[in-house]
Design goal:
It is a single chain. This protein folds into 2 domains: about 45 residues, no CATH class; about 240 residues, Alpha-Beta Barrel (TIM Barrel), CATH 3.20.20.70. The chain is α/β, with parallel strands linked by helices and about 375 residues long. The strands form 4 sheets. It has a 9-stranded mixed beta sheet. It is globular, with a radius of gyration of 20 Å. It starts with 15 loop residues before the first strand and ends in a 13-residue tail after the last strand. Helix content is about 25%, strand content about 20%.
C-alpha cells in the first residue's frame, strides 16, 4: 500500500509519489497517467488539479481526502446489473482530467481549492465504515477516479480485504498501462461515453474519443470487471438519431449486445446553461433505436419511467427486475440471475435476492467516532 508523506508546498494535504511520469530534457516533467500528458515545471499542477510537479516528480496531492461520503443505492451510479438493490458507499475527491462544458458535478470537478476536501479518510477507514454501514461496495464517483489512481487502488485493496467490492464511475480517459493496473483492483465500472464523435470530445470536453473507446474495449476484453455505459443526451449536441445509431452500433459490434446502456437526461449546468433539459421523448426515442440495433438492456435515467428503468429477459421478454426511481419493485430472477420463466441467464453480478436499501441517500461523516447508523444492503 502507498503511504502519504509530508509536503511543505501543501501543508494541509498529504501527498504520495506516483510512477506514471517521466522527466523531459527542458526541466519539465510529463505526467503519463492520462492522454493529456501535462508537462509541468516545478510547483505546477496538471489540468486535473490534484497531480503536481514536486522535486522533479509527479505526486498526488490529495491522497486520503474526499469531497464527501454518501450511502446511495447502487442503481444511482448507475449500475442495474451489479448487486441490485444494495447500498454503496460513494465518494469523490476534487478536480477532473477532462474539461466538459456541461459538467453536472462542476462544483467538485472544477474545484481549485482544498476547501472542497473533507477531513482525512484513510483507505482502511473507508472500507471499515462501508462494512459497518452494511454496504456491499464502495464507489469512486462525483469526480473521476483516474486522477486519484493511487488512493483509489489502496481503497479497493482495503475493501477486498473485508470482502467488499469496488465500483469506478469514470469517463475512461486514461493511458493503457495505468488503466490496466487500475482495473486489476476494480469489480465494476460505469463508463461515461459522452459521444461517438471526435469533434464532440475536442470541442466540448477538451479531450479525444479514441482513448475512451480503447478503455471500453479493454474492460470488456478483460472479462473480470462488470461494465455498464452511460450516454448523457444533450439537446442539439449529441442527441440526433444518426449519432445514437452510430454509438449503439459501435457498442454491439465492439462490446457485444449484453453491455447495459443508460441514456441519461441532461440538465443545464456549468458553461452550457443556455442548453435546455433533455425531453423525455428524446430518451425514449434513443432507447428504441438502441434496442432496434440489438442492445438487450437499455435504460433511461431522468424523468420517472418505470418501463425504461426495468430489466426484461432477453430471451422471452418477461420482466425480471422492476424498478421505480432507483427502487427495486419486483424480482423474477433465480439466485444466480436466471429468468424464472425460461431459465435464460441475465448478464450481470447477482448474488441471491436483491438488497432492500431502496432509494435513500445517507450522508456520512467518516471523522465521527460515533459512526454509524445501521443500514440494509
Amino acid at each position: 500500500m502507498t503511504r502519504p508523506e509530508a509536503d511543505a508546498h501543501d501543508e494541509f494535504l498529504p501527498v504520495v509519489a506516483t510512477r506514471y511520469w517521466h522527466a523531459l530534457g527542458d526541466g519539465r516533467v510529463q505526467c503519463d497517467l492520462c492522454p493529456r500528458f501535462c508537462k509541468l515545471h516545478e510547483g505546477q499542477r496538471g489540468l486535473c488539479f490534484v497531480r503536481a510537479c514536486r522535486e522533479r516528480r509527479i505526486v498526488l496531492t490529495t491522497y486520503g481526502r474526499s469531497s464527501g461520503f454518501c450511502v446511495d443505492p447502487i442503481e444511482k451510479k448507475p449500475l442495474y446489473h451489479f448487486l441490485p438493490g444494495t447500498a454503496v458507499l460513494s465518494f469523490g475527491t476534487a478536480g477532473c482530467n477532462l474539461a466538459c462544458r456541461f459538467c453536472q458535478n462542476w462544483d467538485i470537478t472544477k474545484s481549485r481549492t482544498i476547501a472542497t476536501l473533507a477531513d482525512a479518510a484513510p483507505p482502511e477507514r473507508v472500507a471499515l465504515v462501508a462494512r459497518e454501514l452494511g454496504c456491499r461496495s464502495v464507489a469512486f464517483t462525483y469526480n473521476d477516479p483516474v486522477i486519484f489512481h493511487e488512493y483509489a487502488i489502496d481503497v479497493a485493496d482495503a475493501c477486498r480485504a473485508l470482502g467488499l467490492r469496488t465500483v469506478a464511475v469514470t469517463a475512461g480517459y486514461v493511458c493503457p498501462e495505468p488503466r490496466d493496473e487500475f482495473y486489476r483492483h476494480i469489480d465494476a465500472a460505469n463508463v461515461d461515453l459522452k459521444s461517438i464523435r471526435e469533434e464532440f470530445y475536442a470541442q466540448v470536453c477538451s479531450g479525444h474519443l479514441q482513448p475512451v473507446l480503447d478503455t471500453l474495449v479493454a474492460i470488456k476484453a478483460g472479462r473480470k470487471v462488470w461494465l455498464e455505459i452511460t450516454n448523457l443526451l444533450i439537446p442539439g449536441w449529441n442527441d440526433t438519431d444518426e449519432e445514437v445509431e452510430a454509438l449503439t452500433r459501435w457498442m454491439v459490434r465492439e462490446l457485444g449486445p449484453d453491455v447495459p446502456l443508460h441514456f441519461s437526461a441532461y440538465r443545464p449546468a456549468w458553461r452550457m446553461l443556455n442548453v435546455p433539459a433533455t425531453p423525455p421523448a428524446t430518451l425514449r426515442r434513443a432507447r428504441r433505436i438502441a434496442t432496434g440495433n440489438g442492445l438487450r438492456h437499455v435504460y433511461t435515467a431522468g424523468p420517472r419511467d418505470p418501463e425504461g428503468e426495468s430489466t426484461s429477459c432477453h430471451r422471452c421478454g418477461a420482466p425480471v427486475i422492476g424498478r421505480d426511481r432507483y427502487e427495486v419493485t419486483s424480482w423474477y430472477l433465480t439466485a444466480d440471475g436466471c429468468c424464472r420463466r425460461c431459465g435464460a441467464a441475465t448478464p450481470g453480478v447477482f448474488e441471491g435476492p436483491p438488497g432492500d436499501w431502496g432509494a435513500r441517500c445517507l450522508p456520512v461523516d467518516l471523522t465521527s467516532e460515533n459512526t454509524l447508523p445501521t443500514t440494509a444492503g
